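During the no-cost extension, the postdoctoral fellow (Dr. R.K.) reprocessed legacy sequence entries with the updated structure-token encoder. One reprocessed record is reproduced below for audit purposes.
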Amino acid sequence: VRLVESGGGLVQAGGSLRLSCVTSNIVSIYLMGWYRQAPGKERELVAALSSGGNPYYADSVKGRFTISRDNIKNTLSLQMSSLKPEDTATYYCVAGATDDLKRGSWGQGTQVTVSS
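Re-encoded structure tokens follow.
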């Protein structure tokens, strides 16, 4: 599965960004999500969404991030609002065939930097 992320960048605290992940035949993918990793920190699952399921959000982003899938555009999106400096990380789009998402296919990552 090929995944191409875009939408990262530099934003001030309190601002918003929208990440996109384009793939092919998204309807055939069971589970998709976004991981992030900051320097010196462990990789963290930020949000995930299965085909027809309820979204999952890490506690650290609940109420601020929204994950969605567009089956027409074959795109997974992550709308990020009220961004904080601690959201600074490389964000990766992941697609998986099982609930063990980290074992799925990974995109190349997109950098998000939030300045204080």
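The mean pLDDT is 96. The chain has no helices and eleven strands. The remaining legacy entries will be reprocessed before the final report is submitted.
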